[in-house]
């Protein structure tokens, strides 16, 4: 139930202060900020004690007219629990109780320690869990970049405002910028085989996903060995195919991460650093320290199909 406190105040006591007390209610203020628990002043033309009832009813009608339910923060998402359960609904809020998710009109609260991931772009694949970074959340942006930190707050409406708290302070991301937030691998998801000497699937790099994490933290100057196989179709044309070295037609994609390399080639990057070519090379020296990401050198990946499989070996490690 909505809780509203109404006070008669102001010069001549002709102003009603309508305060939203329920923590789920938000008012849009004149500066486009959301007001939570702050008085909203409503000046009425009628004076006199006998009109108090009319004033209160008028104020309540104003609150109703503003349509509080329509301004509640919510965004469709899939919340994956550490138990493996998937909850599809609307993300509404985050506070001391946990994450508030609205499922078929009913609110459900999920404890922070129970969440494995939140996805705003559909269900997660096995490759997504390779982004797990123990001890902190990984925000995978839709442009392929990643941000690490604590999900500190959720606000706004649609898109949601996600406040990320990191070592350099707070940063706001909008939910339409974020593809997934990943904390941990669910209990029903096996640890992927990302290293070895062959024979296993390795890291799956889907053709329709710009970047996937290998789950491996590399050192600057470290030499990594790749055994890469697979094929990706780069468009609706059945003949527009690419192996790990790039397009069979040897065409380029001007807006791809590496426009000077063949379209569709296997590429890599460390953290949010500059992309580099992998292709059919068997060894590559790492340009920086951080998580190794693998990707497809294409400008538009949404219409792609197929995948690469990459087995990674670290020299001196088994």
Keywords:
6-stranded antiparallel β-sheet, 1 helix, 45% strand, globular, mainly beta, 10-stranded antiparallel β-sheet, 318 residues
Give a quick rundown of the structure.
With 318 residues, the chain is mostly beta strands. The protein has one helix spanning 52-65, and strands at 4-9, 15-20, 27-28, 34-35, 39-43, 75-81, 86-95, 98-103, 106-110, 115-119, 137-141, 146-156, 160-166, 169-174, 178-182, 203-206, 211-218, 223-233, 241-243, 246-247, 266-270, 276-277, 283-285, 290-296, 305-314.
Description:
The protein is mostly beta strands. Strand 11 and strand 12 (146-156) form a beta hairpin. It is globular. It has one helix at residues 52-65, and strands at 4-9, 15-20, 27-28, 34-35, 39-43, 75-81, 86-95, 98-103, 106-110, 115-119, 137-141, 146-156, 160-166, 169-174, 178-182, 203-206, 211-218, 223-233, 241-243, 246-247, 266-270, 276-277, 283-285, 290-296, 305-314. It has a ten-stranded antiparallel beta sheet with strand order 9-8-7-6-10-15-11-12-13-14, with no helix packed on it. Strands 16, 18, 19, 20, 23 and 25 form a six-stranded antiparallel beta sheet that branches. Strands 17-24-21-22 form a four-stranded antiparallel beta sheet, with no helix packed on it. It has one helix and 25 strands.
Q: What number is the mean pLDDT?
A: 78
Q: How many β strands by DSSP? A: 25
Calculate the terminal CA-CA distance, rounded to whole Å: 60 Å
> Would you tell me the structural class of the helices and strands?
mainly beta
Rounded radius of gyration (Å): 26 Å
Helix content: under 10%
Give, in spatial order, the strands making up the sheet with the most strands. 9-8-7-6-10-15-11-12-13-14
Strand content: 35-45%
């Amino acid at each position: 139930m909505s809780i509203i406190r109404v006070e008669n105040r102001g010069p001549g006591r002709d102003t009603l202060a309508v305060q939203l007390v329920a923590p789920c209610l938000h008012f849009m203020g004149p500066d486009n900020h959301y007001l939570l628990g702050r008085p909203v002043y409503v000046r009425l033309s009628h004076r006199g004690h006998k009109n108090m009832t009319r004033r209160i009813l008028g104020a309540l009608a104003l609150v109703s007219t503003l349509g509080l339910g329509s301004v509640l923060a919510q965004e469709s998402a899939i919340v994956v629990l550490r138990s493996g359960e998937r909850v599809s609904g609307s993300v509404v809020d985050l506070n001391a109780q946990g994450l508030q998710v609205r499922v078929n009109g009913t609110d459900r609260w999920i404890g922070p320690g129970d969440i494995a991931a939140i996805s705003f772009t559909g269900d997660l694949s096995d490759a997504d869990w390779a982004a797990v970074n123990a001890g902190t959340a990984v925000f995978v942006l839709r442009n392929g970049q990643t941000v690490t930190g604590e999900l500190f707050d959720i606000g706004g409406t649609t898109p949601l405002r996600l406040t990320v708290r990191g070592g350099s302070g707070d940063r706001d991301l909008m939910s339409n910028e974020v593809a997934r937030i990943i904390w941990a691998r669910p209990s029903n998801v096996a640890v992927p085989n990302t290293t070895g000497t062959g024979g296993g699937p390795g890291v799956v790099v889907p053709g329709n996903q710009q970047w996937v994490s290998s789950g491996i933290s590399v050192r600057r100057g470290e030499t990594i060995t790749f055994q890469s196989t697979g094929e990706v179709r780069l468009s609706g044309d059945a003949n527009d195919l690419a192996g790990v070295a790039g397009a069979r037609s040897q065409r380029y994609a001007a807006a791809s991460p590496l426009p000077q390399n063949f379209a569709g080639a296997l590429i890599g990057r460390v953290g949010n650093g500059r992309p580099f070519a992998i292709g059919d090379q068997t060894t590559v020296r790492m340009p920086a320290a951080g998580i190794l990401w693998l990707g497809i050198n294409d400008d538009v990946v949404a219409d792609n199909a197929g995948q690469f499989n990459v087995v990674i070996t670290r020299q001196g490690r088994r």
